[in-house]
Amino acid sequence: MEVNNGDGVGNFNLSRKVIDEEKSTVVIPETAHQISSDSWFQVGFVLTTGINSAYVLGYSGTIMVPLGWTPGVIGLIIATAISLYANSLVAKLHEFGGRRHIRYRDLAGFIYGRKAYSITWALQYVNLFMINTGYIILAGSALKAFYVLFRDDQVMKLPYFIAISGFVCALFGISIPHLSALRLWLGVSTVLSLIYIVVAFVLSVKDGIEAPSRDYNIPGTTTSKIFTTIGASANLVFAFNTGMLPEIQATIKQPVVSNMMKALYFQFTAGVLPMYAVTFIGYWAYGSSTSTYLLSSVNGPVWVKGLANISAFLQTVIALHIFASPMYEYLDTKFGIKGSPFAIRNLSFRIGVRGGYLTVNTLVAALLPFLGDFMSLTGAISTFPLTFILANHMYLKAKHNKLTSLQKLWHWLNVCFFGLMSIAAAVSALRLIAVDSKTYSVFADI
């Protein structure tokens, strides 16, 4: 049951709700963060901010180059459809069993029991930690690309830019108390996204028109093509999924299910168009030579490219806050951080705890700037299970008596298919780590 205390902060009396399994219990705490206060439109922008982060500048190289035109285009469209479907399953379970489940682990624990609660918690936060670290690397790379445009003197290395990025991300995380407080910043994020996407799009079109014929053949040996195809197929679904849908849905106003569905439809229609545009045009313009950071391939005025890189850097700072918010919520709730976000105790807590958390992220980012390989592995063992395997199986278990035999078969096929995809993606990621570990060193300047 939701109780609103009159200031827009909806609190759930969850402290009495327990999950019992084999005489063991886990208490689900109420949240210290603001919930039930945001419109579906604001939540839709939260979702599209994640989709259109600066990661979209890499999809031409990481998805289209390994797959080619036909599999790449068809695969991206199919990935959009299955991601919408899987996310809608989780969204529809938000109020399952007469309770509102504001965390992914709460929902899994309610359906399966205490062990599932703990496993889901571990998978989700390992995944989000890696995503947060990846965002800091991305921000550092964008900042370095900006610097190199004006002073390519090799004095400033990537780890230095990663350190600067981590500091800026910490300042932003300390200043924004919770996910709902982003509000105006979501508009800023949208403007920043449009800047680097439009710049990349226009300059790619210009280069594509002026360039000679491109080579669209998939590079590599037969063996390497197999593994890169598996990796690219995994990237197709990683692009659309957060692994934290219940946490985002917790911020939306009643009716939570229908409003969340509106937000998802917005995300997977208008929200995906910029990503489609820059991904396809980038590959069209440069073919198999497309880089994994599109702004490194384009030619144009230095100030325009500089503006795009700074926009990518700033947008990444905002996007990271979305994926760090479940960890912030966990810590704030655990230590009872409530009331005014600018109270001395609360501000000091955020400086120490959030600053410390992002310091660890930054250290890992600087130490392993080729973290993308490890992110592929954690995505295989966490994003696939959370977004597809668990979503289908939870829905199957929750709605078992209401589903036809054909519907049950469909969900089981999804569970099995994505289970196999998860294993294949993990093997591919392990191979990539083994190959790249021979090339890169710690604190590498790449």
Automatic annotation (TrEMBL):
<keyword id="KW-0472">Membrane</keyword>
<comment type="function">
    <text>Carrier protein involved in proton-driven auxin influx. Mediates the formation of auxin gradient from developing leaves (site of auxin biosynthesis) to tips by contributing to the loading of auxin in vascular tissues and facilitating acropetal (base to tip) auxin transport within inner tissues of the root apex, and basipetal (tip to base) auxin transport within outer tissues of the root apex. May be involved in lateral roots and nodules formation.</text>
</comment>
<feature type="domain" description="Amino acid transporter transmembrane">
    <location>
        <begin position="38"/>
        <end position="429"/>
    </location>
</feature>
<feature type="transmembrane region" description="Helical">
    <location>
        <begin position="412"/>
        <end position="434"/>
    </location>
</feature>
<dbReference type="GO" id="GO:0012505">
    <property type="term" value="C:endomembrane system"/>
</dbReference>
<feature type="transmembrane region" description="Helical">
    <location>
        <begin position="306"/>
        <end position="331"/>
    </location>
</feature>
<feature type="transmembrane region" description="Helical">
    <location>
        <begin position="374"/>
        <end position="391"/>
    </location>
</feature>
<dbReference type="GO" id="GO:0009734">
    <property type="term" value="P:auxin-activated signaling pathway"/>
</dbReference>
<keyword id="KW-0812">Transmembrane</keyword>
<feature type="transmembrane region" description="Helical">
    <location>
        <begin position="263"/>
        <end position="286"/>
    </location>
</feature>
<dbReference type="Pfam" id="PF01490">
    <property type="entry name" value="Aa_trans"/>
</dbReference>
<keyword id="KW-0769">Symport</keyword>
<feature type="transmembrane region" description="Helical">
    <location>
        <begin position="182"/>
        <end position="205"/>
    </location>
</feature>
<dbReference type="InterPro" id="IPR013057">
    <property type="entry name" value="AA_transpt_TM"/>
</dbReference>
<feature type="transmembrane region" description="Helical">
    <location>
        <begin position="158"/>
        <end position="176"/>
    </location>
</feature>
<keyword id="KW-1133">Transmembrane helix</keyword>
<keyword id="KW-0927">Auxin signaling pathway</keyword>
<dbReference type="GO" id="GO:0015293">
    <property type="term" value="F:symporter activity"/>
</dbReference>
<comment type="similarity">
    <text>Belongs to the amino acid/polyamine transporter 2 family. Amino acid/auxin permease (AAAP) (TC 2.A.18.1) subfamily.</text>
</comment>
<feature type="transmembrane region" description="Helical">
    <location>
        <begin position="351"/>
        <end position="368"/>
    </location>
</feature>
<dbReference type="GO" id="GO:0006865">
    <property type="term" value="P:amino acid transport"/>
</dbReference>
<feature type="transmembrane region" description="Helical">
    <location>
        <begin position="125"/>
        <end position="146"/>
    </location>
</feature>
<feature type="transmembrane region" description="Helical">
    <location>
        <begin position="65"/>
        <end position="86"/>
    </location>
</feature>
<keyword id="KW-0029">Amino-acid transport</keyword>
<keyword id="KW-0813">Transport</keyword>
<protein>
    <recommendedName>
        <fullName>Amino acid transporter transmembrane domain-containing protein</fullName>
    </recommendedName>
</protein>
<feature type="transmembrane region" description="Helical">
    <location>
        <begin position="39"/>
        <end position="58"/>
    </location>
</feature>
